[in-house]
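Entry for the shared binder. Reason: the reviewer on the internal report wants the predicted structure included alongside the sequence.
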Amino acid sequence: MIKPKLKECSVCKKQVVLWKSNPKLCKDCAMKQKIEQDNGLKLPSIPHKFFKISPVSKNREAALAKYRRLRDAYFKEHPICEFPGCTSKQITLHHKRGRIGAFLTDKRHFCSLCHKHHTWVNENNSEAFKLGLVASRLGK
């Protein structure tokens, strides 16, 4: 395998493989330059590490932190699989109405299930609905 030659970017001075459409710039600097040209903007000169986009928004991160606390409390109250006849203690949290919006943290729709029964519920929706392990997202 041929290793590409590293060259110095004319803007950030990093030793990188230069961008194909502009052989004087690295990919990050070339993308920044393109955004500036397309939008008529002048972006601040910030180190590349600050251009990274967070994989989770701040609001979603706060909701997930609340969810983790509620989940752990629910597992303490319900340490055994809630599927009829199952006594497994290796449980996961099932959301009867899904994880969208407020349903993510609504404890009324939580259900602790072992992996085997959690998979069964996801694959057999109508039978799980009859057992009360799935609820409609539309109704109350």
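Summary line for the report: Residues 7-51 form one domain.
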